[in-house]
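2024-03-11 09:14:02 DEBUG pipeline.ingest accepted 1 chain
2024-03-11 09:14:02 DEBUG pipeline.ingest length=225
2024-03-11 09:14:03 DEBUG pipeline.predict start
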Amino acid sequence: MKPIDFFSNPEYALIILTSSELRFYIGDNVQLELIEARDVVMESHPQRQVVAHRPLMELKRFALHLLQVPRLARLPVVVGGEENLVNAFVKFFQHPYGVIAHTSSDLTTLTCPQILKSAESFRVKVREVYVAHFQDRLRTQMRAGRVLSDMLELARAAEEGSISRLLLMRAPAPLTPETELAATVIREGGKVQLVPHQLFPEGIKMLGVLRGELHAHSPLFAMDA
């Protein structure tokens, strides 16, 4: 049994802004795909870090275009490039899921494989965005009374098929009550997921999310949908 672990390889979008090109990628820790590229001429005033009006409108059009891309709705977006271009772009790119400004030109000349090797500079921030959203959703579930932590209650709910998702801090060791519980959850149609330790209340190493309308419509707990 291998629990789901979204946080070890989270997906993100990457926008790279240069004086001659605007590029849009989607990737993770393993692969990066160039989705779209636009040729532009970015005139600026370097000493004042001001982008001229016409290229500013190009940045605005690109930002508004990307905000309409459905796949970006639930992805953190990293915006990289020269500082003046990044700062101007993010003012137009009001993306509610999470925007990470990477004001550096170190990515602008790299190929996809090279960008992947350099992604450590923002990868932790991408993970932090996911953790923050997950934590908010988990708190909502707790306030609604849909989260169990007591082992006996978890075992009873698992046998009844009431657990939609079992959240673990680490993969359970073989031949332990945790392994048996996880196997029961999976057998009854639920899922087992590893989540970062900071999401658990103090002294708790396992949580069970009960089935229900709130859970079924939660975009965060349906990350694998």
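2024-03-11 09:14:41 DEBUG pipeline.report The chain is about 35% helix and 25% strand.
2024-03-11 09:14:41 DEBUG pipeline.predict end
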